[in-house]
Amino acid sequence: QVQLVESGGGLVQPGGSLRLSCAASGSIFSISAMGWYRQAPGKQRELVARIISGGSTNYADSVKGRFTISRDNAKNTVYLQMNSLKPEDTAVYYCNAAGVVTGTGIGGYWGQGTQVTVSS
Prior knowledge:
four-stranded antiparallel sheet, 11 strands, mainly beta, seven-stranded mixed sheet, single chain
């Protein structure tokens, strides 16, 4: 059984920073890619940032230059460093792991989501 445990969300003022963490646990052989998605009220879920096992990354245009995704493959953990936060960054942030290989097969998993609120 695979679980994604997220942490680091909270309330921050505009211009502030937060660091999100997501650790995948369980009998995992490998994970192809991990990423962060977000969903604001009344909006569709969107990709924020993604990183593959080889280190390649991609970001939503709205967060480029402000957010940095990183990954510790040995620990099956992904991080999202969020700087210069804006009110429009307010959303529930979801961790995703794709291409997760376990003893029972391969699949994708989602975290429960963590709230990020940027407000003065």
